[in-house]
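Open question from group meeting: does this chain pack into something compact, or does most of it stay loose? Before anyone orders reagents, we agreed to write out a predicted structure and look at it together. Recording both the input and the output here so the notebook holds the full record.
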Amino acid sequence: MKTIAIFASIFIVLAVIFGMYVSASNTEVGLRNRFSAQQAVIESSLDKTLKTINQTAQISKAEVAALKDIIIGNAQARKGGSGSLATLVSEAVPNVNLTTLQNLQNIVAAGRDGFDREQRVLADIKLQHDNVRTRIPSSFFVGGREPLKLTIISSSRVKAVIESGEDNDTDLDLTPTKPKSIEK
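Structure tokens returned:
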């Protein structure tokens, strides 16, 4: 009777340890799979944002070119005409539709916000994975597995600020410049 109790106790302990191994292993594999899937989401999000910005900017370029044609046409008509002030005043001032540029601004802001959110999710998955790998008792079972490699997509300016610990560039430089397509 005593040997049966000992074997039963050993079996229960082994079953619990095996259950802990299966649980830790499944958690680690699940996080690794979520990490890979989230990397694909980030790539897709960035691709969509960049394509949307590019295509919207192409519309804006077409609008600038049309406006340029109107202004150049008015200037040439003025040059060939009498040049009087009355002709200048009677010309229709072209209306500039800023809707596309405002839409472009919204697309950029929303795209960056969405992209940032997806990168934060990826960083959170990495944190959870590291916790599973390094915390007891799961670290006994999956601690030797490879850590996930997290690459945060960022600008070179931000990386320089993080390395130096200083961000002294606060100039917004809001001085208007002439668009290159209108210069002549």
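Observations to bring back to the group:
Residues 2-80 form the longest helix (79 residues).
The CA atoms of residues 141 and 164 lie 39 Å apart.
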